[in-house]
Amino acid sequence: MTTPVRVLFVEDRVSDVELMLWELRNRFEPDWRVVEREADYLAALDPGIDVILADYTLPDFGALRALELLQESGLDIPFIVVTGSISEDVAVECMRSGAADYLLKDRLTRLCPAVSQAIEQTRLRQARQRAEKERAGLLGREKAARLLAETAERRSRFLAEASVVLASSLDREAILQRLVRAIVPEFADWCAIDLLTDEGSIQQVAVAHVDPSQLERVRERRPLRPHQLDAPRGASAVLRSGEPELHREITDEILAEVAIDGRQLEMLRSLAPLSMLIVPMAARGRITGVMTLATTGRRHRFDAGDLSLAHELAQRCALAVENAILYSERASVAQTLQASLLPERLPAIPGASMAAVYRPGGDEAQVGGDWYDVLELPDDEIGLVMGDVAGRGVKAASVMGQLRSAVRAYAMEGHGPRASLELLSGLVRQYHDEGMATLAYLAVDPLGGRARFAHAGHPLPIVRAADGAVTFLTAERTLPLGVFASPEYQETELIVEPGSTVLLYTDGLIERRGESLTESMGRLSRAVRDGPADPELLCEHVIERLVPAEGTQDDVALLALAMVPVAGDRLLLELPASPTALAPMRRALKHWLAETAATPEEAFGMLVAASEAAANAVEHAYGPGDARVEVEAEVGDREVAITVRDFGRWRSPRGEHRGRGAEMMQGLTDTVDFARTAEGTSVTLRRRLAKRAGA
Amino acid sequence: MVAGGLLARLAVAERDGLTIARLQGEIDASNARGLGAELRACISNQAVGVVLDLSGVGYIDSSGIRLIFELAGRLEARRQEFRLVVPEEALIRLILATAAVERVVPVHASLAEARGSIEAADQP
User: Which of A381, A582, A666, A685 to mutate to test the interface with B (most CBs of B within 10 A)?
Assistant: First the structure.
């Protein structure tokens, strides 16, 4: 069933009006008019209008001006601002100016509930005003009337002040804390706000007491679990029914009913309230929490007028909280998007140890476009990529997602750093018309150290040699991606020595206001030179030295790679318990075996046997997320021994396949020994070599 | 996305009623299942036989051996011939020998040899 509604649109776009009408027709039968100029608006205003939907910005008119004119006219018509974007300033300004609500054009599903609620609130307010008028007239006594008028005036002034508080921020906790402080002592001696959590319990989020020293006692209210929410009176009853409670006389019996448990009862008794109000907070038809107020002996008991004031306050508060949640959702969309575009963990690659750090800067709602990735390339190389997309927010995050996927796709097709940059440049021009992006790309063979590097306008990666000497990977300056349609980039070939560490980063690490680039690059060089070789520790050290404690405006991303030598009599590899870790494990083992006296056949047999054992271990290893497998290889006098350990429960080999793996281990080595320990299972494979080392 | 990822590649061609599947790279527990599925999807019922060319395979373990045995069972049931090609000097011969693959599938040193063998078997 649809309800007739008269709507006045202040809007210059016919298409937006049509969209809103389409949405409204789900619940209403709209009779409407559209105005876009001030004069037309004034002419159209009449008391029969149920709701005004106004665009925030029109060429020569706007919601704020329309709201001002409405208030000057003295008409009580709910006014809803419809904006294309949600900036905190706009939201705060609209609510402060007296708008009933505001909506995003891309979230018009909220339109019907918002219109219903605004109309309903206005209707209730007018009914209350009429009732109060009648009551005042009926009392007929001048003194009572004056007192009432004074109280009403005090209340409406308080409501106006509280509304300003509510509109002052979009941070939920801040809003509520400020509100309870505005309520106490002006209106009550104690006030608490409990919100319904996603899990269905209620959680106290703000509390104020006329005597702050009593706060500790009052704060003792703990979150209530759902099964405690069945009390006949009090917060839980109000949450269930949505009906406010006014307790004019507080007896111990009532306290016992309202209290959830003995401790709370004790707290309430020591508070000794004279009267209490418990009002629901409802936004858009949903109860989101309750507000509890108490007076003690030092003031009057709450009455029906206080109840309606508290109710009105709770509604506004609920709406402000809801808007704060919407805002934080917007912020977290960009953050989630960005976080999902960074690798969850870096791959474990024998021969190389890596670490990455990402620090978002400035405003959390404005996520930046810094990103990094580690790729496994053909020919056993790994690719380290660090990029920065100009701009912030969801757009920058989505462009960086496209770049990241493209780099991965180009890598699959065998394109190296230089070719990837040239292809990416076209992509940036196509998808990020107003912007640019910088990128540094290092492809390195972790076992031999051969490397290729190319960059597009990106801050230069820095290398710390085993002896602590610091150099930049190249001195070459290049243009960012997207400046030219078909640019040419250079590729530098180099060797990353064993024991050295390479650090890639974004400009947020080095750019400081009032400091020249030479100065900040010098600071970076010194920090890297003095830093530890371990990539994780180096990242921490550099952040500590270069990033001020209060954070940076820009995002900071760091990616460090340390080259670990794979040679000697003993090799210890740690791999994640995943089948995809088998190939990199074999590469390191093959590299190590080639340095021993084993013949190619002996080495290959051991390689396959060890890989079988590791595949077995990967299947057995268990544990949340970080399960790992250890491979330890040792060469002695004419013998190679490889031990593979998992840290899972022992399970007997199952099926034909596992039998075949064990058969393979037996067939390719001299001895296979299984051992079960408390931590897991280990398999040791031994094979005698035909030749002595050096022979 | 290729089933073998970066680790292995599969190319399949049909010639004179024969399916010639060429695998390159490494076959292990991470990609054997996907490669097996891709292979099965590429072999038509009409083919007289299948030659699996492993000349470009540098590594194979029991998961690859299982792939071969499963394929052999399937082709046997459909009365299609099956041959492997592995160069004489290839290190993976060591693995095929350890698993006694030759008892189930004939292994040839070259593609020409494998084709000749199927043609000979196909004659009435």
Answer: A582
| Residue given tokens 């474990």 in the structure block | A348
User: From the CA of A601, how many Å to the nearest CA of chain B?
Assistant: 7
Q: How far is A579 from chain B (nearest CA, A)?
A: 5
Residue A375, classed as helix, strand or coil, is: strand
B66–A601 C-beta distance less than 8 A: no
Residue A261 pLDDT level (bands cut at 50, 70, 90): low
Instruction: Give CA separation, A435 vs A369, A373, A458, A505, A557, in Å.
Output: 11, 21, 15, 20, 20
User: How confident is the model over A649-653, as a mean pLDDT?
Assistant: 52
Quickly list DSSP for A393-443.
HHHHHHHHHHHHHHHHHHHHTT--HHHHHHHHHHHHHHH-TT--EEEEEEE
CA distance A293 to A311: 11
SS3 A354: strand
Please name the member of B30, B95, B98 whose beta carbon is closest to the beta carbon of A580. Answer: B30
Q: For residue A193, which of A210, A164, A172 has the smallest C-alpha distance? A: A172
Average pLDDT, chain A: 80
Residue A329 confidence class, pLDDT cut points 50, 70, 90: low
Question: Are A172 and A185 in contact, with CB atoms under 8 Å apart?
Answer: no
* Peptide bond before residue A185 is cis, with ω within 30 degrees of 0: yes
Residues of A in contact with B62 (CB under 8 A): 612, 615, 657, 660-661, 663-664
CB-CB neighbours of B114 under 10 Å:
26
Distance, in Å, from the CA atom of A397 to the CA atom of A401, rounded to the nearest integer, reads: 6
Chain A partners of B99 at a C-beta cutoff of 8 Å?
660, 663-664, 667
Complex-level ipTM: 0.90
- As a residue count, chain A comes to 695
pLDDT digits (tens, 9 = 90+) for A174-207: 778 878 887 887 788 888 888 887 777 777 778 8
pLDDT on residue B3: 41
Average pLDDT over residues A330-348: 65
Tell me if A139 sits within 8 A of A148, measured CB to CB. yes
User: What DSSP string runs through A79-122?
Assistant: EEEEESS--HHHHHHHHHTT-SEEEEGGGGGGHHHHHHHHHHHH
Provide, as residue numbers in chain A, all residues whose Cβ is less than 8 Å from the Cβ of B28.
Answer: 579, 582-583, 586, 611, 615
pLDDT confidence of residue A621: 66
Over residues A427-461, the pLDDT tens digits come to: 887 766 666 889 999 999 887 788 999 999 899 99
Q: Do B61 and A580 count as a contact with CB atoms less than 8 A apart?
A: no
Contact A607 B59 (CB under 8 A): yes
User: Both tokens of residue A517?
Assistant: 């680039």
Tokens of A377: 């390339």
A249 phi and psi, to 5 degrees?
-120, 125
B66 with A657: Cβ contact below 8 A? yes
CA distance B124 to chain A (A): 36
CA of residue B97 relative to chain centroid, distance: 15
Of residues A106, A59, A65, the one with CA closest to residue A82: A106
Q: Which residue of A has its CA nearest to B90?
A: A601
- Least CA distance to A668: which residue of chain B? B98
Question: Would you say A461 and A506 are in contact if contact means Cβ atoms under 8 Å apart?
Answer: no
Residues from chain B that touch A580, judged by Cβ atoms under 8 A, are: 5, 30
Q: Would the CA dihedral through B44, B48, B50, B51 be positive or negative?
A: negative
Show residues of chain A in contact with B7, CB under 8 Å: 583
CB contact under 8 A, B98 and A663: yes
Reduced to 3 states (helix: H, G, I; strand: E, B; else coil), residue A542 is helix
Strand blocks (E) in A223-312? 245-247, 275-283, 286-295
List, for chain B, all residue ranges whose pLDDT scores fall below the cut of 50. Answer: 1-4
